[in-house]
Amino acid sequence: MAELLTKLPRRRTVLLASLLALGMTATACSAPGEDRSSTQKSDAAVKTELGTDPITLEMYAETGFPLAKALADEFSKQHSNVKFNIREDQFTVIVENAPRVMASDNSPDIIRLPTMVDLVKDDLLKNLDPYFTAYGWDKFPASQLMQLRVGENTRGTGSLYGMGLGYSVTGVFYNKKLAGQIGMTQPPATVAEFEELLAKAKTGGVQPIMQFNKNTAGINFPHQALQNQFGDPTQVADWIFQKPGATFDTPAALKATQTIQKWAQAGYFTKDANALDYAGMVGEFQKGNGLFMFNGDWESANLDKSMPGNVGFFLFPTESPGGKHVAMSAPNTFGVSAKAKNPDAAAYFLNWVHTNAKAREISVTVGGSSPGGPSDLPVPSAAPNTVLAETLKASQQLGAENGAVDFTANATGGIFAAAITPEMQKLIAGQQTPEGYVKAVQAEYQKELSR
Amino acid sequence: MTSALGSAPTGRDDRRVRPTPTRAHRFRWARAAGTGWLYVLPALVMYAVFVLRPLVLTLQYSLYDWNGIGVARWVGLDNYLTVFTDSDLLKIIGNAIVLIVFFSFIPVALGLLVASMVRRITTGTFGTVVRTILFLPQVIPLVAAGIAWSWLLSSNGLINQVLRAVGLGGVARAWLGDFDTALPAVGVIGAWVLLGLCTILLVTGMSKIDPALYEAARLDGAGPVREFLAVTLPSLRQEIGVCLTVTIIAALASFDIVYISTSGGPGLQTTVPGLEIYRLAFSQRQVGLASALAVVLMLLVLACVLPIQRLSRGEKP
């Protein structure tokens, strides 16, 4: 570099140096982020009336999931003074964009949320406690909103920062025709039975599991399904909620990882799982190229359309017969931005989604998920003999058994991209040991929390 | 242009007054120079705002631990220390260097070969068709190229179908999802994209070589190989320099092809600095570390490209 500078004509060097010095002076006066004004406004007074003034609610939602738009359209139909301006992106893009979009002057009113702790720490999310009181959301089952609470650097307790547009449940979808071929007459009751079915499928020439693992580790679904069963799910939840002392390096996680590696070695996942993305997985499953697919009820309505009558769903079985079901289940979380221009209308909309009969019906038929809300409101029914009806039933069963656990991928903002995805890809390719996997995930977790 | 304006004979006066640098003359020159700057100003402003300012900001951010939103913490050179000691980041930089072989050396070598072959058919409709076909990958957006190649290289894609059809089913695999083949597969996509550019540049360069040189070589008894080594290659020094510069930058700064075809996986096998900078900054919110990696990448590009620039200009190394 020094040699390069000596070769440059002196005038040019002086010009370059002064330009850089000028730039450095102009930008180095303050540390980045120091000039940010506080965005949190007073939460003292909230309105629960929508009024008749024209309002445009800015919404930032996930593309490919038509629920948010369907609800917005119905809301505008019922309240003609409210219009929605919806921006859609893929979930991973929202995860990356959310902090900057919410910190900008054009912050949306309602936004689909990735992980929440960082956003709360940076004062980007509106505290919904005043609305909780004003609307009487204490009539909702407390467990429903638990995942949406953020306390002192942990989730699960503290103030409410989001609401769900539907409350999803994950489990296993299966191709009924292929199930018949291998003699599966009913969903497996234990993990061992499930593994027997996998072996039968493999020997019968049927691809046992169709699971994506490309840009985001879809094999984390079966991994967590096993992890939830092999130990106390509270441990898993504590880790996700960043409770002090929680660790991923547990016997349950290790056993789950060993099982995943065993399944990979047995050829239960496709050989190209690491090159298969989410859309590819669903496409292959719809083509009848796999017996099982670990996925969530958000795909029910789509599967009912593409393979009517040929798909079943069950909650991942327990380790011993008759045990309590535990499944990854999370709200389709939406929050109100701290800089929202119409926070009262946004909260009104969120309350309406949970309590309006038509909105609840849309949550079921379009979103494929339980609408949540007060326990005394009926859950709209889905058409019989559909996989939607099955996922809805599973959701109610899980609620009754109190077995909902959030996704390990939601533990921190970067854990999925930085650790779970690359390490899971290594694991199923035999490039990582199960012990190495749990340690690598925990190491990244600690690194992130220490920042 | 400015000097031409400044010293141009004025017609009516130049018979009586010699064009010495009078005050009026200097003023006119300065005015002309000022006009010149005025023309450049819009571009200069854009350059300052969109190139210089981000460059300086990146340098500044690289000295902080910052999540992009909250208040940053001064860490000095710690981020650079991380870049040079973190085994994952070193592997990622190593991946980019491997890609230079595929993005740069292969297209240039193949480009020379193809250009030598198509040199004689550069005129007429056939020549136009050949050039168009060769240049096509450059026109296709890299994202589209990445998607198309992902299909071709998938386990049931065309390439594996062909392999199975000719009895090489044992070799078939998910090329972009396999730890051993993912990086070379990404490299092949890059080589395909850049081959056309190199070929067209080299064909253009070849068309400028004086035919007399070839004639002389042939009279001296040179065969096609000798002719290529003694005449074509030395004459193409500058074109090869341009090709290497463009393709090495493409290799080191690659993003689109990798993001679309593998997203950096499996594991970190195909992750390149461009992708990691984006991930660190936007996904993991480590703006400081991302900036430090960006600065290191910029220096790496300069370290690779500056010697080539000097060599291709014919200066002493």
Could you explain how this protein is built, in words?
The complex is a heterodimer of chains A (451) and B (317). Chain A is α/β, with parallel strands linked by helices and 451 residues long. Chain A has 19 helices and 12 strands. In chain A, a hairpin with an 8-residue loop joins β4 and β5 (159-160). The radius of gyration of chain A is 24 Å and the shape is globular. Chain A starts with a helix and ends with a helix. The model of chain A is unreliable at 1-6 (pLDDT under 50). By secondary structure, chain B is mainly α. Chain B is built from 14 helices and 2 strands, in the order ααββαααααααααααα. Chain B has a two-stranded antiparallel sheet with strand order 1-2. Chain B is flat and about 70 Å long. The interface between A and B is large, with 48 and 46 residues.
Please give the structural blueprint.
The complex is a heterodimer of chains A (451) and B (317).
Chain A: H1 2-7, H2 10-28, E1 55-62, H3 67-78, E2 82-89, H4 91-103, E3 110-112, H5 117-121, H6 129-135, H7 142-146, E4 149-150, E5 159-160, E6 163-167, E7 170-175, H8 176-181, H9 191-203, H10 220-230, H11 233-240, H12 251-265, H13 278-286, E8 292-296, H14 300-306, E9 311-314, E10 327-328, E11 331-336, H15 343-355, H16 357-365, H17 387-401, E12 404-405, H18 415-428, H19 434-449
Parallel strand pairs in A: 1-2, 1-3, 10-12
Antiparallel strand pairs in A: 3-11, 4-5, 6-11, 7-8, 7-9
Helix pairs in contact in A: 3-16, 10-12, 12-19, 15-16, 18-19
Chain B: H1 2-7, H2 23-61, E1 64-65, E2 73-74, H3 78-85, H4 87-118, H5 124-139, H6 142-153, H7 158-165, H8 182-207, H9 211-219, H10 224-235, H11 237-252, H12 256-261, H13 273-283, H14 287-312
Helix pairs in contact in B: 2-14, 3-14, 4-8, 4-11, 5-8, 8-11, 9-10, 11-14, 13-14
Subcellular location (chain B): Cell membrane
Domain ABC transmembrane type-1 (chain B): 93-308
InterPro entries (chain B): ABC_transporter_permease, MetI-like, MetI-like_sf
